[in-house]
Design goal:
six-stranded mixed sheet; disordered C terminus; single chain; alpha/beta; 10 strands; about 350 residues; globular
Length: about 350
């Protein structure tokens, strides 16, 4: 087997000569945890970086990669970059395997794993968008040019980051300390986190939004409803975490996400508010959200009680309730105030 090279996926590549890491780009060998991946059973992992580390351990690694010249991917993120790095630098990857895996986990699951891993993840994330990054996306004419440059630069940068995760501390310090601050606030019970175990969900209530990494690390669930308390009303943001999207070995039975559009329809009928509407993303998106927002996409207050919003979201995405479905069919403006939404959600099976 000759030396592998990284080429960002485009239609001009020959899939038979590619190992596709992370993502869902075509390839003769898949090493990915995305839904629908074709990763060999022996190499499956919660992270694509983990699958690549597994491949490097195989005694028949050379045979598995025979005829393959190219490592490819179809998007930019930490797990994708680290997957490519592991295959292109097998000896260095073996030496730093725990740190590489922890950094990939921090990126894909938005978790605080170790301080060093979080700093590497934040740095790689900043490469594509920080105003001082030499490979920020805005410098290139096409997405393909940007991604190829970012991978080439990031692959060279990784050996330095493994030795010094604070190499670009000036890029990441503010966000890193915001995460640390919010994790401490959660530990000190300055934020209320209510677990709804049967729905794999938490309701996070506070006086502001808290960093998603701090919340995810504390909650470890697939669904999060954030409630920000204001003098009058509340701001609402419901989101799925990537834990409910990726194909995971340690959590093989993924719970269906449910129909966010249905939940938005229920909320718009039963929990309306002035100046905004409930808007839902496609639940097939990794980080799909459901929010009460204005036409510009900003969160705005809604005066429906959090318990009612919680129950409506559960009924819309978890266990459908025909009583609420019937109410949602009424014309807007009918007598269907929040009191109609006070239905205890069913636990399901």
């Amino acid at each position: 087997m000759g030396s592998l090279v990284y080429r960002h996926w485009h239609e001009g590549l020959n899939p038979d000569e590619c190992v596709s890491v992370d993502g869902d780009a075509p390839g003769r060998l898949h090493l990915s945890h995305w839904p629908g991946n074709r990763t060999p059973v022996a190499l499956r992992s919660d992270l694509s970086t983990g699958s690549c580390l597994q491949l490097n351990k195989q005694p028949d690694r050379e045979q598995l990669l025979a005829g393959i010249t190219t490592v490819t991917n179809n998007h930019w993120d930490t797990d994708g970059l680290l997957s490519a790095f592991v295959l292109l630098n097998p000896e260095l990857a073996r030496e730093h395997a725990p740190l590489l895996y922890s950094a990939a986990m921090s990126g894909d699951f938005d978790l605080f794993t170790t301080p060093e891993a979080v700093k590497i993840n934040l740095t790689l994330t900043a490469l594509s968008k920080h105003k001082f990054s030499p490979v920020r996306t805005g410098l290139y004419g096409t997405a393909l040019e940007a991604r190829q440059a970012q991978y080439e630069y990031g692959l060279k940068l990784m050996s330095k980051l493994l030795e010094n995760p604070e190499l670009h501390a000036d890029w990441i310090a503010q966000e890193f300390w915001a995460i640390m601050r919010d994790m401490r606030a959660i530990r000190e019970d300055k934020v209320r986190i209510k677990h709804i175990e049967h729905a794999d969900m938490v309701v996070v209530t506070g006086d502001r939004h808290y960093h998603t990494m701090a919340v995810n690390t504390s909650a470890d669930v697939g669904r999060v409803l954030t409630v920000v308390t204001l003098e009058r009303g509340w701001l609402y943001e419901f989101r799925f975490t990537t834990r409910s999207w990726f194909d995971m070995v340690t959590r093989p039975l993924r719970r269906p996400r449910g129909d966010l559009a249905r939940a938005a329809r229920l909320l718009n009928h039963l929990a309306p508010g002035y100046g905004g509407i409930w808007v839902a993303d496609d639940p097939e998106e990794p980080l799909a959200r459901l929010c009460f927002q204005d036409p510009q996409g900003n969160l705005v207050p809604n005066e429906t009680r959090p318990v009612d919003v919680t129950n409506l979201i559960l009924s819309g995405t978890w266990v459908p309730d025909p009583r609420l479905d019937a109410l949602a069919q009424r014309p807007p403006g009918a007598d269907v105030g929040p009191e109609n939404a006070r239905v205890e959600p069913k636990t399901g099976s």
